[in-house]
Design brief:
The protein has 545 residues and is of the alpha+beta class. The chain is built from 23 helices and 9 strands. Strands 1-2-7-4 form a 4-stranded mixed beta sheet. Strands 3-9-8 form a 3-stranded antiparallel beta sheet. It has a two-stranded antiparallel ribbon with strand order 5-6. It binds protoporphyrin IX containing FE. Belongs to the cytochrome P450 family.
Length: 545
């Protein structure tokens, strides 16, 4: 029957339709689609092409995509619609308007989960972990994560792990490099530092990325590969990656292999910790997240205690969330310091003022350093854009309509460079904008929806305090001992990579020159006073909403 219908259709076309008719019909279709696309975009917004949507515009600006996107948002009044090329609901709006961001992240939080689009793409690597979860599954993990991470015990432990890595690995490595005069990619060194740090905090294990000779670490490599391959699904037509997944070929096969390596490591660690608990009857001597969760009383919604699978997914999510963000933030910070010697002197003065053990010096919070890091992340946010998926039709505060299953992308990079939010000097690196008249950090009073670097609302980054402690300890220790000399000729090369994390495309080559006078700002192992290290205002701001 179907065959007959096709045959009739072919005969009809052959007999009654000429090639020129077909060309006219195609041109008319294309024109209608172009007009429709053009009408659906806002004045100033990038062209939405028939069939290809925003893709041609993105390709034309691959080299300066972040700044181009920020300029397009500014021209379009802060929000514009976009459409991808393939189905699967790849359309929505891009915004940098703080009121819209507040609406999505807080006011109408229930309508904007991470959603199935995100979850499906990270399913293999993250399973049901916090980063991938919504609803009750997310809430339960969030409660557990907040309780553990904000406990005095974890804060003290994590300060100890930071101090241990900074004193025991990072500084000796830089001393050796300084003595030999060798250049190194600072971004790579920092990525190794934060990977080791998050593995120690989450699992209580030394991943060994900062070990002598900076070895290749299979677990770290597998983790990076699995993340990259999961992210590739966001820019690949779903029919393509799903077919590859079904057949077990190409990038999908590589993803399965990388994920298996990550999960084997995590499963082994969880298994060994369980065995230790069974053998010794307690994990009281261990403070990492895995041990704390394993030995905490079962939550009401999970009377039999956390399953091994839950613990594995929880820790993998933490590694994904915490492994690269603070390192890229530090890399951009050192890059900015290199071209702002006045800011560097003020940071150094702050570090010196903090004296001996800066983090132990009660009340000495290195506010200027805190402000300089905050300012650096305004210009170079480690997560340059993020998105949520609408459950139901909605209208954003600026009047933009969002349909169910569409995405709202909030563009943190553009938000940090928005004149309306930060004034005419919004492109300048000026830590002073975060300080009050007495030089105390006053950023805690800024709206988190204007500075969404750590997200905001109920899903505010749960590792924010940890990240600041880590970045401040590393920056203070390095700056007190070395001048970080950026190798000349990199001004053109240091560009952000197109990724969900704002890596530098080709890293940052530096040399370390020992300072004549040496200061000792690293926290003592055990880091007793890290609780006091954050300015009060920042602690208040951190409170989850
Ligand atoms: C400068 C460093 C950091 C930045 C800029 C940052 C930024 C963010 C952002 C934007 C999100 C929201 C992601 C989303 O919902 O799609 C987030 C969530 C999260 N971050 Fe961070 N992060 C940093 C460091 C860390 C560290 C060191 C840890 C772990 C110790 C961590 C743990 C988490 C977790 C677990 C979540 C998920 C929270 C939830 O969904 O409830 N982050 N972070």
């Amino acid at each position: 029957m179907a065959r007959e219908l096709v045959a009739v259709a072919v005969r009809f076309v052959r007999e009654y339709v000429r090639a020129s008719d077909l060309a006219v019909a195609a041109a008319a279709l294309f024109a209608c689609s172009a007009v429709r696309s053009r009408l659906s975009a806002k004045p100033g917004a990038p062209m939405l092409w028939p069939v290809f949507g925003i893709i041609p515009a993105l390709f034309a600006h691959l080299d300066d995509i972040y700044d181009w996107g920020a300029a397009a948002l500014a021209r379009a009044g802060g929000t514009f619609p976009y459409r991808g090329m393939w189905g699967g609901g790849s359309s929505g709006v891009i915004t940098s308007v703080p009121a819209n961001v507040e609406h999505v992240l807080k006011t109408n939080f229930a309508n904007y989960p991470k959603g199935p689009y995100y979850r499906e793409r990270f399913a293999e690597l993250l399973g049901g972990g916090i980063f991938n979860a919504d609803g009750d599954a997310w809430r339960a993990q969030r409660r557990a994560a907040s309780a553990e991470m904000h406990s005095a015990r974890f804060i003290e432990f994590s300060a100890g792990t930071i101090a241990h890595l900074v004193r025991g690995k990072l500084i000796p490595l830089m001393e050796a490099l300084s003595e030999s005069g060798a250049a190194v990619d600072l971004q790579d060194v920092l990525l190794r530092f934060t990977f080791d740090n998050i593995c120690a905090a989450a699992f209580g294990v030394d991943a060994g990325c900062l070990a002598e000779g900076l070895p290749d670490v299979p677990f770290a490599r597998a983790f990076e590969r699995a993340t990259e391959l999961s992210l590739a699904r966001f820019v690949t037509p779903p029919f393509l990656w799903k077919a590859k997944r079904l057949l077990g070929v190409g990038s999908e096969r590589a993803l399965v292999e990388a994920t298996r390596a990550v999960r084997e490591f995590a499963d082994r660690t969880v298994g060994e910790r369980r065995a230790e608990l069974r053998k010794t009857g307690t994990l009281a001597g261990r403070c990492d997240l895995l041990s704390r969760l394993m030995s905490s009383p079962p939550p009401p919604d999970c009377p039999e205690g956390y399953s091994d699978e839950f613990l594995r997914d929880f820790c993998i999510s933490f590694i994904l969330a915490g492994r690269d963000t603070s390192s890229v933030a530090l890399a951009w910070f050192f890059w900015l310091l290199a071209s702002h010697p006045d800011v560097e002197s003020r940071v150094l003065a702050d570090v010196v003022r903090a004296g001996g053990d800066a983090l132990d010096a009660g009340g000495s919070s290195m506010d200027y350093l805190h402000a300089a890091l905050t300012e650096s992340m305004r210009l170079y946010p480690p997560v340059p854009a993020d998105f949520k998926e609408a459950l139901e039709d909605d209208v954003l505060p600026d009047g933009t309509a969002v349909r169910a299953r569409q995405r709202v992308i909030y563009y943190t990079y553009a938000m940090g460079r928005d004149k309306a939010s930060w004034g005419p000097d919004c492109l300048e690196f000026r830590p002073e904008r975060w300080l009050d008249a007495r030089g105390a950090f006053a950023g805690g009073t800024e709206s988190p929806y204007k500075y969404a670097v750590f997200n905001a609302g109920p899903r505010l980054c749960v590792g924010k305090r940890f990240a600041y402690a880590q970045m401040k300890a590393a920056a203070a220790a390095v700056l007190a001992r070395f001048r970080v000399e950026v190798l000349p000729g990199q001004a053109e090369a240091v560009k952000p990579k197109l990724n969900t994390t704002l890596y530098m495309k080709r890293g940052l080559m530096v040399r370390f020159a020992a300072r004549e006078q040496r200061h000792e700002p690293v926290p003592a192992a055990g880091g007793r006073a890290i609780k006091r290290e954050l300015p009060k205002a920042a602690i208040e701001r951190d409170g989850e909403e």
